[in-house]
Design a protein that fits this description.
alpha/beta, Rossmann fold, six-stranded parallel sheet, about 40% helix
């Protein structure tokens, strides 16, 4: 029988344990600074959710809302001031950002020790050095995916297929699974015979941004399917996997919404607490 992975419930349990850790800290509470550029409705919603969860855990959260026409120089200036502020533990730049700003430049400006989203080039490098786990920050969605998988199955020896190769989800998720001794295959728009690859996957992670792209006949019987996609069709959110059909074959599957999303926010809070303990 297929198990529907309740990411919201798992996230709520983790929220309780994080709150306990925060309450046991000596001195000041952890502090997260979020930079929001422009008025993208989805970004505004994500930031509000992050603020709400931070407050529930006991993490101080401050949002810096910048005009969509803000200059790159102004954004970097704000980041540098937050880097210097000893009361700020974590800095998060909400993506996407305005086109006049070079994403890689501003992400590089964030102090790696405060880079709770794991997107500074140094933290990206640390990701490929498994001996440096203590001081690195890993992108939150990848951490969320790993946590969900480990909760239900042993990764060692499994074949993991990642559909999508983004720097935020696909690549870091693949690396974390590789660290845990999975055999990892990345698939993308140039992959030939994608179905052949996905049918061999014990663990199938899908992060494409294409609604219902993965069909039932592309899923191995009993596989774990992690759907990272968030697509809006009318007033409904759906994933990259044809959930209703795929769940008939999968052993474990995440729904959209209520799967990876809630866990990603919790991993951001976990990284912020880690940053507070490091500072």
């Amino acid at each position: 029988m297929t198990e529907i992975i309740n990411g919201k419930k798992i996230a709520n349990n983790l929220k309780i344990s994080l709150k306990k850790e925060v309450n046991e800290l000596r001195g000041r509470k952890p502090s997260l600074s979020v930079i929001l550029i422009g008025d993208n409705p989805a970004s505004q919603t994500y930031v509000r959710i992050k603020e709400k969860i931070a407050k529930e855990i006991g993490i101080l959260s401050k949002v810096y809302v910048l005009d969509k026409n803000v200059s790159q120089k102004e954004v970097i200036s704000l980041i540098q001031s937050l880097n210097k502020n000893k009361k700020v533990d974590g800095i998060l730049l909400q993506l996407p950002i305005s086109p006049q700003i070079k994403e890689e430049v501003v992400l590089k400006a964030i102090d790696p020790k405060k880079d709770v989203d794991g997107l500074n080039p140094l933290n990206k490098g640390f990701l490929f050095n498994s001996e440096n786990k203590k001081n690195r920050f890993v992108p939150c969605t990848a951490l969320a995916i790993l946590h969900l998988i480990q909760k239900f199955i042993k990764i060692k020896g499994k074949k993991a297929v990642i559909v999508g190769r983004s720097n935020i989800v696909g690549k870091p998720t693949g690396q974390l699974l590789l660290e845990n001794n999975a055999t990892v295959c990345f698939c993308h728009s140039y992959t030939k015979n994608l179905k052949k690859q996905t049918l061999e996957a014990d663990i199938l992670v899908v992060a494409l941004g294409k609604p219902k792209f993965i069909k039932k006949d592309m899923v191995k019987k009993g596989a774990m399917v992690i759907d990272v996609g968030i697509n809006k069709l009318g007033n409904k959110l759906i994933g990259d996997v044809d959930f209703e059909k795929a769940k008939e074959k999968a052993g474990f599957i995440t729904p959209v919404p209520g799967g990876v999303g809630p866990m990603t926010v919790i991993m951001l809070m976990k990284n912020t607490l880690k940053a507070r303990k490091m500072n």
